[in-house]
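Subject: two folds for Thursday's group meeting

Dear M.,

Sorry for the delay on this. The cluster queue was jammed most of the week, so I only got both jobs back this morning. I'm pasting them in the order they finished. Each block is the input sequence followed by the predicted structure tokens. Could you check whether the formatting survives your parser before we put anything on slides? The first protein is the one we discussed after the seminar.
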Amino acid sequence: MRLLLVEDSRDLATWLAKVLRNDGYAVDAAHDGEEADDMLRLVPYDLVVLDLALPRMSGLEVLRGLRARGSVVPVILLTANASLNGRVRGLDEGADDYLVKPFEVAELEARIRAQLRRAGGRPAPLQRCGDLVFDTTSRDFTLAGVPLALTPREQAVLEALVRRPGRTLSKAVLAEAVFGFDDRADPSAIEIYVHRLRKKLEGSAVTIATLRGMGYLLRHDAP
């Protein structure tokens, strides 16, 4: 899942991006409204965390332009304005949720998970492929009931696959789910993460199949 974090405080943006990357998301960061607007025109993000008080172009202007282009990407606003009118205005412009600064990062993480579940149209919190279960609330994987220990990038690859059951994903698509603009994106690195995941899935009926020239497919090989 690829997120855009728009926050003019570079220290706060760096810290939040690190937390979210450790959660397994690919995160791009923008520090002013015009930069954010350009990135939103270029990349199909899964969710946007958008500060309202931005230089060069306000968060509300960014949001207004995004919705005017027909985008339905979930947007969580960050605002220092705790007034009812300020919150209502943001929601009226098309925001899906908001957080008032200062906030607990755990609450932001929970709101991100909730918005991603709603955007995916999946009210059920668990996604399954055989004995592999992904809890969309905690964002944890289990295999035959045992927690599966994954690095953030292994998590991002496996999540991308399990969220699209029966679909083949190319290396380029998986790379978009794993790498942000600031990462040294090498699609061939996906082969390494897939190899590691196959090792961790060994002994189960869940496999990652390679379809030559197309990409990878998560499947359950029932006996």
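Second protein, same layout:
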Amino acid sequence: MIQPKILAALAAVALLSLTACGTTEEATGSTPTEDAAAGGSITVTDARGKEVTLDGPAERVVATEWNAAENLVSLGVMPVGAADVEGYAQWVSAEPLDESVTDIGVRGEPSIDTLVSLTPDVVIVTDQLAEGAIEQIEKTVPVVVVPGGDATDNIGQMFENLELIATVTGTEDQAAELKSGFEARIAEGKASIEEAGGAGTPVAFSDAYVDAGSVSIRPFTEGSLVGNVFAQLGLANAWTQEGDPAYGLAQTDVEGLTALPEDTAFWYIANDAFGDPYQEQLKDNAVWKSLPFVEAGHVTRFPDALWTFGGPSSMEQFVDAAVDAVTAQAAK
């Protein structure tokens, strides 16, 4: 999915931080929306269980993680700063950042000096920020923490995060529209898949990266956000591994793919900027070529820049990609 060293590092960061998940409480805030709309103060309780009070709806917002940045843009609030702006453009296409957004450094460990220099009203971070960073930022700027994910209900967590950010920015109406739009897209997608005869299809979705010459495969189990979306579309998850508690991600190799059902639809995400391990490193691999779904041509690469850990906008892209994959297969 990414250049070997970069993706291996990202995978390591993700896997090391998986158990740091919290839960969002009182996502709609403890101050009535009408007061916020009238210019009154806003108080929310974030993933730490900490109350954060702002003078009013935040206008200048910094996001240290891409899902928070995507949610802000989808709500109509362009962040003044975001982490790894170049990487965001390569991996998140649903809600582009404009040229006004300042790059604050790497995700998980941003430049606090750059962040503070932007004089934000609030900083939205996830529970994966480097140790001590939140406390350092809070010396100058209010911080609201959202969980990275929750494998018990990642769609629910996605909307809790969205609604918390909407409360902070006074954009609750936009959040409600995003939720209803997502639900409508799910209903339309499910109907299209049923019409194509794809209901109940076992799907194995993954990404992959190369480390020390070996291909490491990352299954998105039923607890993953993408897995949740596919389940709502009426598809079955072919992975049997248990994923991590935050993102529902597992780990396997090409030999592990032999455990998948023969009628599996194998879907994956890659990126032209960093290569495709399935089409490059595995193209001549005997195990890969012998897999029933490979021999049958039931392998689909999804479009680039669909963010697997994003918000409703990215997940709608996954709905469309899933429908396209099912209908294309039915047409063969």
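Two things I noticed about the second structure. The chain is about 35% helix and 15% strand. The longest strand covers residues 202-211.

Cheers,
T.
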